[in-house]
Design a protein that fits this description.
Layout lengths: L1 H16 L3 H13 L1 H30 L2 H25 L17 H11 L3 H14 L7 H24 L1 H35 L1
Helix pairs in contact: 1-7, 2-3, 2-7, 2-8, 3-5, 3-6, 3-7, 4-6, 4-8
């Protein structure tokens, strides 16, 4: 259970660490409205992680109970991780993200976080992919308590990375270019390694 909490925390943290609309919004809210507002925004985003993870678990459990679908998805996962590795590698070559492009409406930061998190269409597929990957290596359990620990870890991992973006907003604003390059290069290597390990497990 504690291992699943750890996986939930690490995967959600790593999945949100590279500059995107969600964390760039946290950064800009912190710069414009202060750290307290940024924390409210992070809490709003994190709340939506709960239903996203639960839906992902239900979908993945159904898939796991159908070996043909699971086998196909495991093979497709190799292609996805290779594609992600290539994507992050290309992203690592790009320059600094223009934070001014992120628009902040004058509304409650909590509601902003909830709204943007709901609109984040990658949430459920991301957690489904994470759960499938863990299940392939026999590291996931679908019992209620284990799922709760994984969900809690995912919520806290998401909140913590957004909290850090808000806390160190000024530093990140100055170093976004190098930060983006380094993180994307690391993620490119990690996703590439996952693709290799998955291939080895399935075919060798």
């Amino acid at each position: 259970m504690f291992l699943l909490f750890f996986f939930g925390f690490i995967f959600s943290f790593a999945g949100s660490i590279t500059p995107s609309m969600l964390n760039m919004t946290a950064l800009k809210i912190s710069l414009e409205k202060g750290k307290l507002a940024a924390n409210k925004y992070a809490f709003g985003v994190s709340l939506i992680i709960i239903p996203q993870v639960i839906i992902a678990v239900v979908l993945t459990k159904y898939i796991a109970q159908n070996p043909t679908i699971l086998d196909t998805l495991e093979k497709a996962g190799i292609v996805v991780f290779i594609a992600l590795s290539y994507y992050f590698y290309n992203e690592s070559k790009k320059g600094k993200i223009k934070i001014d492009e992120v628009n902040i409406k004058e509304i409650n930061p909590l509601l902003t976080g909830i709204s943007l998190s709901v609109l984040n269409m990658f949430g459920i597929p991301f957690f489904s992919g994470t759960i499938i990957t863990l299940d392939v290596f026999k590291l996931f359990s679908f019992d209620t308590v284990s799922v709760l620990f994984f969900t809690l870890g995912s919520v806290l991992g998401t909140f913590y990375i957004l909290f850090l973006y808000g806390k160190f907003a000024k530093v990140i604003q100055q170093k976004t270019g190098k930060l983006t390059k380094d993180i994307n290069l690391i993620l490119s290597i990690i996703t590439g390694l996952v693709a290799v390990f998955t291939f080895i497990k399935l075919f060798i």
